[in-house]
């Protein structure tokens, strides 16, 4: 077994704290808004100039003028404010966002992140990711543990070194995959630690699908992965 997309988003929501200003990336990270704990006040910020986003609208109630940075329709709240994208990026670059939850193509054991480009393939582009990883206080990545190819093979996404163009170097604090959770000492030498396993997942499965070096710290004391 492994975590579903919704379970990964639910685990990511545990990183939220009351009063946080949070930026959610495209894909699985957008689901985190469904799991904000009751009674917790979190302000969701979008690079296109919106602070205080509400939940996704019900079918038939969409407003095409109310979208997030991923062009998904959203709703507004009584506390929502709107501003220019330049002001939005000033918030990001000025260190005023507490947490960003992003998707990724690759993460290295030292916290390097690649999440915007695969050479030779059409992609949406950098967006605000480079600014987010440089200016936000804590960066959490939510992604599938491996990349699945058309021929049925898989490629590791947690690597010793990223092979794709980087979004940022030593920027990732936490990685949540469908198999488990890894903490990264991005500014020090402790590297990557496996701190949680998804339901029904073994350490052996994690090791088989992870190229990066990591230690294991599941509550029984840290040890090096075999």
From TrEMBL:
SMART domains: CoA_trans. Pfam families: CoA_trans. It comes from the Bacteria. One of its GO terms (molecular function) is CoA-transferase activity. InterPro entries: 3-oxoacid_CoA-transf_B, CoA_trans_fam_I, NagB/RpiA_transferase-like. Keywords: Transferase. Belongs to the 3-oxoacid CoA-transferase subunit B family. This is 3-oxoacid CoA-transferase subunit B. It comes from Enterovirga rhinocerotis.
